Amino acid sequence: MTFKARESLSEQIAGHLAAQIIRGDMLAGDRIQELRVAGELEVSRGSVREALLILERRHLIDILQRRGAVVKEMSESQVRGLYELVQVLLGLVIRKAIKNVREDDLDPIIALIHELQVAASDRDLERFFDLSFQFLEHAYPFARNGFVEDVLTDLHPALQRTYFMALHLDNDEMKECLSFFKALVETIFRRDVRSALEIIREFAEHQSELVQESITRARQIEAAWGGRRK
Question: What is the radius of gyration, based on Cα positions, of the chain?
Fold first, then answer.
């Protein structure tokens, strides 16, 4: 693996591990062994330990006594809480954008909308996933609030985990997401705060419920199979 010089080594390791968790290559409850990761990536255990602390802060793992680092479980209440918080923070970003941005500030966002549309037409889930978070990263500075940007950035991996799941749960979810991004930009052009907040609320509730239902079904299936094995 080739790491980028612009990031600290621990950040690069955290990003590498986060990608595996977000895409389901590592599952809830899986242990992350410092020594194995250090050997695979040819880095020090100290750097891996720092990376694990970053992942804990970003809500992807838990560091437990005696067990060490394990991939964080996702419960319905955690998903609900995540989307409730993102809804509030993104609403703040868009309110500030409506108040302060000039139309030419939105040019990069418009370009991303076009790319999202192409990815959706091509059914390119991976490309659509990456572009979605580029869209959000372009929007966050509109808040003109470093604290808000920092909190949203730390929430990104947890949100990416649920968003990736949602895209794979429903064949029409890319269309839903694309409609959301388009409608959000339109409200900024119209300077329509009320509609923007309603669009954010509806989308957050929709995707939250989609992921929560999947978690509930998975637990029910697991319980049913467990009962059969007894």
Answer: 19
